[in-house]
# Entry
Amino acid sequence: MCLAVYLGIDRALARFTDVAVGEIGLEADPSLRPKALAEKRLVYHVSDRVPTGWNCACIFLDQVVPWEAEKGDDPDDPETPARAKAYAGLQRIARAALGADSSPLIFSCWWGDQQEPPALTRDCTPDDIRPARYLFDDTLDGGQGGNPPILIRLREAHP
# Structure
């Protein structure tokens, strides 16, 4: 199975729809629109650009063991640079989304579960979006939750 991640927003973020291969961007008008984002005017599929179009969002899966998560990431893991780059791209998108909409939403699920209701809802700032946080899993303490449908409400950081 593949992870699907979506952004629901009320104003377009066109600058993220034409990104270079290997960059995280937004696919406009995805074939499956999650039910959890029905209140939003626009829905984008969030993933990395590949030469033939768009990939799945599995790059956002934190597949590190708990002792690695305790230190934030494993610098010896060959996937770490790619995952860090992907999360940095998602942070940029989240910041832009907050500039365009006061209540943008991110929804994640296994491919095929787009019509399922969220099993968990989180409130996150763009700075909360980083590797080894298990944002798309049902625990923040090392994963192992099976990646149920998750709704993330983006919000500004408050001092």
